[in-house]
Write a structure and sequence with these properties.
By secondary structure, this protein is of the alpha/beta class. 50% of the residues lie in helices and 19% in strands. The chain has 15 helices and nine strands. Strands 1, 2, 3, 4, 5, 6, 7, 8 and 9 form a nine-stranded mixed beta sheet that branches. The longest helix has 33 residues, at 2-34. It starts with a helix and ends with a helix.
Length: 343
């Protein structure tokens, strides 16, 4: 009898230890899972201190707070993870979760975006806004998602692209750009656009622009005027012409397979974060008058084009496109017609 009681006591103790250990193990596993949030890698070419950085921080903070620290957006700056021309292939392969993408980057893989890369495709910001609120834009994004496996979360306007030079010179015609070594993004659409503007386009990674301006490897750059402040280009530039050849557009995009692994609640949080980021940057980037004032205070000369000058220059540029059907032949003319109908 004593042996039976002893056995039962030992069994109960061992059972308790096993149960306790099992519980502890389950609790430890649960704690590990809880301490490992979903991380979304994000590639960006800008400085962390730039307007991009300020905007992205709003997304990072919102997603972290709204998800109660279970989702982390992890930005990598100055293309430290992937160069600008590597971002879309990395996104399509699933080697990158998220990035900002411009129409010219996507056009290499989904040709309909070539339609949006032509200089003076959009008359102004309001024309741009009407398009991106239209069904035509939604259809474009759906088509890209099906073909490339890339989902658009939000769209931002980061200002009108302009021409800024290391010499004090107004640009009012293609002839004014003759022999100007102009930095452009390294993709076919932007290289041709630089040519259409009248320049000698030089493809360069974004982080290399300052040094290239400083050493004279390039004579200028085409970008929105806010980048001149964010990157201190006013130290190596003397003038900017507000010719507004392209409405600067960024899409906040995510790999579709990754997106589909998120729950509906998680998707809502990430999408809202991307919208907050895009809305903030659009609001700050379109304050042209305030930005120009800062640049003038830094010693830069700001040139505005009259309606007649702008009309003449844009016609020269558009005529140059028409002389090159190998470029315009890539455009979706039905989409182009829809865009022009929204003027």
């Amino acid at each position: 009898m004593k042996k039976i009681l002893a056995f039962l006591c030992v069994s109960m103790v061992l059972g308790g230890v096993i149960f306790a250990n099992g519980t502890a193990e389950r609790e430890t596993t649960s704690s590990i899972k809880a301490s490992q949030p979903l991380t979304l890698t994000f590639s960006n070419g800008s400085l962390a201190t730039s307007l991009d950085g300020q905007s992205m921080q709003k997304m990072v903070d919102y997603v972290k707070d709204a998800s109660k620290n279970t989702i982390v957006v992890d930005p990598h700056w100055q293309n430290s993870l992937f160069t600008q021309d590597q971002e879309i292939p990395a996104l399509m392969k699933g080697n990158l979760d998220m990035c900002q993408a411009q129409p010219s980057q996507l056009a290499e893989y989904f040709p309909q975006f070539y339609t949006l890369t032509g200089a003076y495709c959009f008359k102004d910001y309001e024309h741009w806004k009407r398009f991106y609120e239209s069904d035509a834009a939604k259809e474009l994004f759906v088509g890209m998602e099906k073909k490339l496996g890339i989902t658009v979360l939000s769209v931002e306007n980061f200002g009108a692209r302009t021409i800024s030079l290391s010499e004090d010179k107004k640009i009012a015609s293609r002839a004014d750009m003759k022999n100007v070594k102009l930095r452009v993004m390294n993709d076919a659409a932007m290289l041709f656009m630089g040519e259409a503007l009248g320049a000698n386009p030089i493809p360069l990674p974004y982080p290399d622009v300052y040094l290239s301006l400083q050493t004279g490897a390039i004579d200028g750059q085409e970008n929105v005027i806010r980048t001149i402040i964010d990157n201190s280009y006013y130290e190596v530039l003397k003038s900017v012409t507000l010719n507004n050849h392209i409405q600067g557009t960024n899409y906040y995009v995510i790999n579709t397979k990754k997106w589909n692994t998120l729950s509906a609640d998680q998707q809502a949080i990430v999408k809202k974060g991307a919208e907050i980021c895009a809305d903030y940057k659009t609001g700050e980037s379109t304050k042209e008058e305030e930005i120009c004032k800062v640049l003038e205070e830094k010693g830069m000369k700001i040139y505005h084009l009259s309606d007649q000058e702008l009309s003449s220059y844009s016609k020269e540029v558009n005529d140059y496109y028409l002389l090159h059907p190998e470029v315009t032949g890539k455009w979706d003319m039905d989409l182009y017609a829809k865009i022009q109908a929204l003027k």
